[in-house]
Amino acid sequence: MSEPAKRKATYEDLFSIPENMTGEIINGELVVTPRPSRNHVETTSSLGYRLGPSYQFGEGGPGGWIILIEPEIGFGEDILVPDLAGWRRERYPKEEPHNWISVPPDWICEVLSPSTLRRDKVEKTPIYARHGVSYLWFIDPIAKTLDAFRLQDGDWVLAGVYMENDKVRTEPFIDIEINLSDLWLETRFRRPLEESTKE
Question: What InterPro entries does the database record attribute to this sequence (predicted)?
């Protein structure tokens, strides 16, 4: 006797998860994960702080972007929560009748952790490609690496691989230089306080 078809998760299912967890709907399945570690949050926040002034507010850069940390985004029937996402301002929906954002972003960054690495790379990446996200970054705060991809003819093409204290200019944020060492918590704590306050 065949098993009954499994019910696809819906947005309403996300309201049932504990407040200290993150919920996503991936390929019709409700996926619940713990809130990210301090190291993970530090890397995500540091990158957001680095990009925000230049790209969101136009201070020392071109502006014209909306960059959000952990937004809920609808990709068809999937609801995903990338660590960082960016929209060119003209594409960002100002108001919607629901909490999740219905327009796929132009850029996504996933900060990898051992518990989410497979999900981010294997399960979520094809969804991002299917819905036309133009740029995808993977940052690994343990290995201290950044892998940047661009979408080309529906497939991800490697745009650059960077590590440790590299100075990075890569798509879509080529107008500013990102010092990768700024993203690693232990590197920042090793710097003299006088140097840190000058940043």
Answer: Nuclease_put_TT1808, Restrct_endonuc-II-like, Uma2
